[in-house]
Amino acid sequence: MADIGKNRAIVGAAAVLGGALVAFGPYSLFRICGGASHHTMADGAVMEGMAHSAETGASMICKYSAAAELGIGIVIALLGIAYLLFSNPYAHLGLSFGIGLSSVLALLVITVLIGVDPKPMTCATTTQPAIILISTLLTAFTLVNVVYLTRKIKINVKVAHA
């Protein structure tokens, strides 16, 4: 069962890091578009007169996406902390499902549910691809982990046939 301890450290740390990137990346590393009354385009040009938030300068679409990603990212990071704290492999299995489903939600928010400004805005050229990459990697990682844990603790998964 030493593998479970190593698994706990790797998956927990990946979830905390991924959750932090999803939560705070749109506000720091891969910023949403911004400016007092304009959007910055990918080539540095400025587009005037779009609807924006007075507080951040971001467009309303970007602001809502970033706010949703903040909440989802915090949930992912908290699930990762719980993964680090618990040693029960059954709890790890449930937490892995939670991390994976939250990662799918982060992907859906930035692509389908809310989205970002149309290209060539910086949110469409930097923020969206970064969130897509991070959430896809987290989803794949947790899917592999679910399969690993299922085999490790020998859970018999039966599929109902119609």
What is the structure about, briefly put?
This protein is mostly helical and 162 residues long.
Distance between the amino and carboxyl termini: 37 Å
Rounded radius of gyration (Å): 19 Å
Identify the overall geometry.
elongated
Oligomer: single chain
Question: Element order, helices and strands?
Answer: HEEHHH
Task: List segments where confidence is low: pLDDT < 50 over at least 5 consecutive residues.
Answer: 35-40, 48-54
Give me the number of helical elements.
Answer: 4
Structural description of this entry:
It is a single chain. With 162 residues, the protein is mostly helical. The chain has one domain (2-152). Helices cover 65% and strands 4% of the residues. The protein has 4 helices and 2 strands. The protein has a two-stranded antiparallel ribbon. Helix 1 (2-24) runs parallel beside helix 3, helix 1 runs antiparallel to helix 4 and helix 3 packs antiparallel against helix 4. It is elongated and about 50 Å long. The model is unreliable at 35-40 and 48-54 (pLDDT under 50).
Topology:
Blueprint (H helix, E strand, L loop, with lengths): L1 H23 L13 E3 L5 E3 L11 H26 L3 H25 L8 H31 L10
Antiparallel strand pairs: 1-2
Task: Give me some keywords for this one.
single chain; 162 residues; mainly alpha; two-stranded antiparallel sheet; 65% helix; elongated
